[in-house]
Specification:
The complex is a heterodimer of chains A (393) and B (188).
Chain A: E1 16-22, H1 28-35, H2 38-41, E2 45-51, H3 54-63, E3 68-72, H4 75-81, E4 90-91, E5 95-99, E6 101-106, H5 107-115, H6 124-137, E7 143-146, H7 152-162, E8 173-176, H8 179-187, E9 193-197, H9 200-206, E10 210-215, H10 216-219, E11 224-231, H11 232-237, H12 239-257, H13 262-270, H14 279-287, E12 289-291, E13 298-300, E14 305-306, H15 317-331, H16 337-347, H17 350-360, E15 379-382, E16 385-387
Helix pairs in contact in A: 1-12, 1-13, 5-6, 8-9, 9-14, 12-17, 13-14, 15-16
Chain B: E1 2-3, H1 7-19, E2 27-28, H2 34-41, E3 45-49, H3 55-63, E4 72-74, H4 81-90, E5 92-97, H5 102-150, H6 154-168, H7 172-187
Parallel strand pairs in B: 1-2, 1-3
Antiparallel strand pairs in B: 3-5, 4-5
Helix pairs in contact in B: 1-5, 5-6, 5-7, 6-7
Classes of the chains: A alpha/beta (393), B alpha/beta (188).
Protein name (chain A): Nitrate transporter
Keywords (chain A): Cell inner membrane, Cell membrane, Membrane, Transport
InterPro entries (chain A): NrtA/CpmA_ABC-bd_dom
Chain lengths: 393, 188
Amino acid sequence: MQIINRSKLPPAEKSELQLGYIRLTDAAPLIVAKEQGLFAQLGLDVTLRREVSWANLRDKIAVGTLDAAQMLAPLPLATALGIGGMRADMVTGLALSLNGNAITVSAALAECLQLLGAAPEKSAASSAHALRKWLQEDSRSLTLASSHSFSCHTIQLRWWLRSAGIDPDRDLKIIVLPPEQMVDSLARGVIDGFCVGEPWNSIAVQHGIGAVQASGYQVCNNMIEKVLGVTQHWHNHHPATHLRLRIALMLACQWLAEEDNRLLAADLLARPEYLDLPVHQLRPSLSGDFQYSKHSGLIKLPHFHVFGRFQAGFPWRSTAESLLAECNKMLGRRATIEETRALVQQTYRTDLYREAARYLGMAYPEHDYLPDSAHSTAWEMAPGVELGPNERL
Amino acid sequence: MVLDDTGERAAMVEISLAAAGFKVVSVLSSASGLLHQIEQHRPDVIVIDLESPDRDVLESLTIVSHHNPTPIVMFSERDDPDFIAAAIDSGVTVYQNDALDPNLVKTVVQVAMRQFQSFNMLRQELLQTRTELEDRKLVERAKALLAKHRAIDQQNAYSLIRKLSMNSNKTIVDISRTVVATLGDMDS
C-alpha cells in the first residue's frame, strides 16, 4: 500500500475524531481505515461510533458530537434543506461506495412471481413485470419497506416499480423501517418486501425468508451509495483534518478495490465491536459470490459493492442533482434550477475530492457533471479516468 | 406522546410530564403502529429517545404530508442551538407541531431531559457498582491462585500483588487480571 509522506500535508487542526457509521456492509471503508492503521498513518486518532439510525447520525453531526460520518448520498442534501429533521449546511468531498443494495421479497411472494415469469438473476425487469401482473391479479394490498425516505434504496425501489408501470404512490405502500428490523418484519409478514443494503438481503436469503428480485446494480449500474459527510461549519474550521480524513478513506477504498482483500474485510466487519454478525452473512456481497435465493446457485456479481474503482469516490454534481430531483419529486416540492445548482455546489464538493486525489497522485475527472450518455461497459473518460457502466432499468 | 423502549424511563417521563401539567396521550415502546397512534391521538409533541432505532420511521411519517395535515418538525428553528445540543446530549429528541408555542415545547423538553439525565445517572451508578463487585472478585481469585502456586498464605499473596502494582505503576485490578490470565490457564 501507498505510504503517505505526512510532512507534505498541512497539520491537522484536530487529531482525535469521532466518526459515525450504520451497521451495514458498506461501512467497510471506515472500519478498514481504522483496522489497517490508515487513520493512524495520517496522524488521526479515530473512534468509530455505531449509530442506530440515520436521524441519530445526522443530529450528532449537526450538534458536533460526531466530527464526520458515513451518510446516505442524498442525506447531506436533505439535511441542508432541513427535511424531516434538524437542519445544517453539509459538505461531502468523497463518495465512499457505489451500489450495495438489493430488492428482496418474501419467499412466498417470490414463488408467485416466478410463476408469473420472474427470472431476477437474468433480468430485474422480469421480476418487476411479474410483480405488476401479481398486483393486477391479486386483490391483497402490498407493503414494501425502504430504510430511509431520502435514500438510494427508496429511489431504486421506485425506479424498479416504475420500470414495469407500477405507480409506487398508488399501487402499493412504501414504508420506512430500520435495516435491522427488515428481515424479522418480512418473516412476520408485516411487509412483503424491502430494498436495503447488505448484509440484510443475504441474511433473508440464507434463512429462506426472502428471495432477491433485483440488485441495486441491475436497477442502475454503479449508482452512488454512501458519502463522507461533515457540516460546512466543521469543514471550515478543520480543512486540513478533513483532507487527512479523505486521504485515509481513499486509501481504504483502494485496499477494498483489491478482490483478495474482500474476505479479510468481511472478517474485520464481522467482529463484535463492528457489525457483530456471522462472517458468512457478510461474505456474499463482499466476495461477489452472491445468492438470490436459498436454493439457487451462486452467481458472480463482482460489482455488488464498488469501492475505489470507476472513480467511485468522485462526488459528481450531476449525480447530486438527480438525487435532489428525486427527493423533490417524492416531497412534491418545487425547486428552481438555480436553487438546485446552488445547493449542490455548496454540498457536493468536487474540488475537495481533487485536492485529496492530487496528494495521492490519482487521476480524477476534470468535469463536475457527467455527460448524459449510457455505457454498457467500462469506459475511459480521459487518460486514467475509467468509469463503470451506467445503464438504468 | 412518549416513545421509548426503556419502560422504566418512559414511566418516569410520563409521571413528571403529568406533574408539570401536560397530558401524555400515549406511551409507546416501539414505532410499530405509530402511524395509527399519531392519527388517533394527534399529539402536539412527540418525545422520543435519541437512541431509538425508530427515529427514521417517525421522520418518514412526518414527511408524508397527507398523513399529517399539521407539519411536525424536529425541535423548532426558533430554539437556540445550545439548548438543542444539551437535549441531544441527554438523549432526548422532540418532534412537535410547528404551530405550537415554543416556550411550551421547551418546558416539555426540560422535563424530559431531567428524567433522562437522572435515569442515565442511575444506570451509571449501577454499572459502577457492578464493575466494583467484579473487580473485587477478580482480586480475590488472583490472591487464591497466587497463594496456591507460591504456597504462601492469602495475606502474603495480596502483599505481593500490591508490590507488583506499585513497582509496575499499574492498578491492583490490572495486576490481578494478569495473574488470573497466566495462572488461571495453568490451572485449567
